[in-house]
Amino acid sequence: MARSLLAIPLLFALSLAGSVQLTKKDGTPPVYESSTPPKIGPNSTQGDKNYKAPLFPILNWTQYENNPILGANENRGWESSFVYNPTAMVIDDMVILLYRAQNSSLISTIGLAWSTDGYNFTRYTEPIFYPTETYENKGTEDPRLIRVNGTFYLTYTGWSDSDGVKLCQAISTDLLNWNKTGPVLPDITESKSGAILDERQSDGNYHMHWGDIEIYLAVSQDLVHWTMPTNDSYATGLLEWEQKLIESGPPPVKTRDGKWLKVYNGVADKDIDNGKYVEGQYSTGQMLIDPDLFPYGPPVARLETPILTPDTADEKQGQVANVLFSEALVQFKGQWLMYFGEADTYLGVASAPVQP
Asked: Where in the sequence is the signal peptide annotated (predicted)?
């Protein structure tokens, strides 16, 4: 498989440089940025120091009253139009976000932001990931991140003139210097939205869920080379709010009883319940999966109703209307934080309590 190396110069410092607030653009949140990114390496600690594995489901979600927390930055061309659809991880007692950014030509790159409270973020002034290969010349989109043995594995959507939409992957130890390993399933005509379970399963493989109409399964011994053990779908849309399509959200999270909680996004195919759901609306749900008993699916259970729906003006109006698309889930300082795209325009967050 073809490989390429994407390197970003690392600015060394004994501590993070102070962030600078830039002028607020009408309708967007303030921008705080720094030219010095966090120093992350193989020995950086991962996860909240008081982490408790969840029970299924995680309920009682509340949207942050000051959403959106990130928006376009008119002072940086690469993120001057839209900022949304992040992945997240807790590293060295900070929430680290990798987010999708679009320029005036709507070419997508990936930016880096960090926070010590989970709500107020400083962003790095340069993109950390951007198109360099023919299979992604039109954009690098919708990142999802896991970490295994000190190495970060990033799945993302590469969009190109020649190959269309392909699920791609890259590897890093510091989130700045990346080794691109190319399309994950090169023989599949269209692929995207890869969410990896970050532990080897009982069949000896790592599992990844992918697809944006139905969810499919791919397996790997090394987290780089992936195959499909079956052409059957792992999960399909069953409920009224997800009839048109379902798509993975963040990487699944292991529950206290050894199963996995999977956050996903669903789309309604028609107006339902007097406008409760409208045609094309993206909402966020949860399902419970058991790779040991049902490695090829279906899910063990799913919630009948979404946990998050596009209810605010920022989610109902924008580049794509009526979209709340969740792609990042972390536990941080006693609460769950879900980060999501709002109408493919802004980035928001919701919180839920950690179960006792």
From this structure: 1-17
The per-residue pLDDT for range 21-30, each reduced to its tens digit, is 554 445 678 8
> Nearest-CA neighbor of 264 among 330, 319, 308, 315?
308
Q: What is the pLDDT of residues 281-315, one digit of tens each?
A: 999 999 999 999 999 999 999 999 999 999 999 99
> Residue 45's Cα: distance from chain center in Å?
20
H/E stretch holding 316:
helix 313-316
* Closest alpha carbon to 297 in 199, 225, 207: 207
- CATH architecture under which domain 48-57+67-351 falls: 5 Propeller (2.115)
Give the Cβ contact number of residue 76 at 10 Å: 18
Domain definitions of the chain by residue range: 48-57+67-351
102 near 71, Cβ under 8 Å?
no
